[in-house]
Amino acid sequence: MNTINKFESRAQLDSTLANQVAEILESAVKAKGKASIAVSGGSTPKGFFAALSNMDLPWKQITVTLADERWVDINDDASNTKLVHEHLLQNKAVDANFFHIKQGDELTSEVLADLNLAAGTTVLPFDVLILGMGEDGHTASLFPCSNEIHAALSRDAAPLLKVVPQTAPHQRITFSYAYLAQSKNTFLHICGESKQTVLNQALSDSDVTHMPIRAFLQHESLMTQVFWAE
């Protein structure tokens, strides 16, 4: 299931999304003493990150992580970790915790096992999940072109998986669909006419391996809130 929210400007979208996410995180901290949010990379969320970073929240009780990451050095311009530290973990959000899903030089089975164990005790299930969407309908690093797509979409998948896309650079680590879908609040943040076109395509068919974002948009009980602006 999904609801589509359209905004006149990206600034309006960023402000509205930041306020809504802030309310969820604050409520979660009040209810259980902690909260977690998984975000996505790219240029689209920068304005949202800036808006959220200025919110008065109990940041010391909030853990931020990534829905997926490229297995590159954290100082590399392709690093989502670098993006989050430069644009979200600033201002009032500087006190937030960050759960690294990229740890070490090589993504070995041992590293993956340790990360899966840590994720289960640190951030899962997410209180908030912010997804993006590629032109091919991928989300997180659930790439339709990858050999791992069926495993990544499986309900029996581990929390974190190694993915090697065939049409995009870099080895990836990603949370699997099974664990992303457990988020208590899921948002798809997209901007521009081209993403509107991709969204329409995603809503027009049900083949999730061809466009993995469909697994969120067309789930019978999972509600995905789409936030779109030109």
Structure description:
The chain has 230 residues and is α/β, with parallel strands linked by helices. The protein has one domain (2-229): Rossmann fold (3-Layer(aba) Sandwich), CATH 3.40.50. It has helices at 10-32, 46-53, 80-87, 109-122, 149-153, 177-180, 193-203, 214-217, and strands spanning 2-7, 35-39, 62-66, 68-70, 97-98, 128-131, 160-163, 172-175, 186-191, 224-229. β7 and β8 (172-175) form a beta hairpin. The two termini are 23 Å apart. The mean pLDDT is 97.
Quick structural gist:
By secondary structure, the chain is α/β, with parallel strands linked by helices. The chain is 33% helix and 20% strand. Residues 9-220 form the Glucosamine/galactosamine-6-phosphate isomerase domain.
Describe the secondary-structure layout:
Elements: E1 2-7, H1 10-32, E2 35-39, H2 46-53, E3 62-66, E4 68-70, H3 80-87, E5 97-98, H4 109-122, E6 128-131, H5 149-153, E7 160-163, E8 172-175, H6 177-180, E9 186-191, H7 193-203, H8 214-217, E10 224-229
Parallel strand pairs: 1-10, 2-3, 2-6, 3-5, 6-9, 9-10
Antiparallel strand pairs: 4-8, 7-8
Outline the low-pLDDT stretches: none
The number of E-state strands comes to 10
Count of DSSP H/I helices: 8
Inertia-based shape? globular
Radius of gyration: 16 Å
Order of helices and strands: EHEHEEHEHEHEEHEHHE
N→C terminal distance: 23 Å
Helix content: 25-40%
Q: Structural class of the secondary structure composition?
A: alpha/beta
In what order do the strands lie side by side in the largest sheet?
Answer: 1-10-9-6-2-3-5
DSSP strand content? 15-25%
Largest beta sheet, briefly? 7 strands, parallel
Tell me the count of domains.
1
**Overall pLDDT, averaged?**
97
CATH topology: Rossmann fold
GO biological process, one term: carbohydrate metabolic process
Catalytic activity: 6-phospho-D-glucono-1,5-lactone + H2O = 6-phospho-D-gluconate + H(+)
Domain Glucosamine/galactosamine-6-phosphate isomerase: 9-220
Protein name: 6-phosphogluconolactonase
